[in-house]
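Reopening: ABC transporter substrate-binding protein still failing for me.
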Amino acid sequence: MASVAGDFEPRDLIMRYVKHLTIIVGVIAALLLATGCRDSRTIPMANGRPQITIMVGGLEKVIYLPAMLTEKLGFFEKNDIDVKLLGEQSGASAETALLTGDVQAVVGFYDHTIDLQAKEQCLTSVVQFADVPGEVELVSKADAAGINSLADLRGKNLGVTSLGSSTDFLTQALTGQSGMTTADYTRVKVGAGQTFIAGMNHNGIDAGMTTDPTVATMVNSGDAKILVDMRTEEGTRAALGGLYPASSLYMRCDTVDAHPDVVQKIATAFVQTLQWIKTHTAEEIAAKMPSQYASAGRDLYVQSIRDSIGMFNGTGLMKSEGAENVLNVLGKYSKNVAPMRDRIDLSKTYTTQFVQEALRANQQ
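Support: Ran it again with your exact input. Result attached.
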């Protein structure tokens, strides 16, 4: 009688299955080897130099200006590393790219390190660019007459970069002070730059959180007014009850532990840039940046830098009071952090080790 497999006996079927399984395992192994560089704990090398990919939550944003400026000043090269910068408008998406190993570092908001620890992931800020967010809550021209305080945002469409982004956290923190929850308004993902401007000018959002140069563009044109300004220490303390360290270079903890020598090179390059910023004018800084960043006009771009440049701390060091305030804010308004508030270990969310070494070396 014929077997269910036609001419094959059970033994033949087993052998054929084993052969196919071996081929499949081999293919999987080859794919793993080919994509091994996606593990962010592994730093690729070329000609003896580390090859670093850094994702930036908006390359053209002034709050993240140190990333491109470091490249243009040649500080990556001077510290013997090759760096590729990738732009991504959403900090939440950049965070995902880091966790999946597509990049070795992110220039984004420090608060992601706390949010991720609540999800049992370890990220740490290696260089802290700023002690304040550099963010502004804008109100559209069409709604300017009816929105004069945070309480007036109830029932409105509020623009954020994306859900789960730092602008989302900050929006919840600001509205929460007026007794609101996310059920009292609608959060709308509008990205940044031109997509944010389009959302505000075409009735997609009534108000929204963004940064320079978008702030300068909309205020100068009369298309928006400033409701809350967190580009200064004074404005940030008034809005959030203290400092709120934001723009930073953060990495996976296991990457930092595995490659302290490479991390030191990256940190030193950024510290050199932060020190350079403090000794140069907005005009001089703008002259170093890609010309397309000033597409709305050089004067406006210079203004946007001048309005925000005070946010950068000049050292790269984290202030402990700022880290504690970020935890306090997220502990109240982040659905991920709130239940874990008392279990967050802030010492794992940032390190000053590499910045302190860079500062010592630069003083010699």
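The longest strand covers residues 49-56. If you still see a failure, please send the error message rather than a screenshot.
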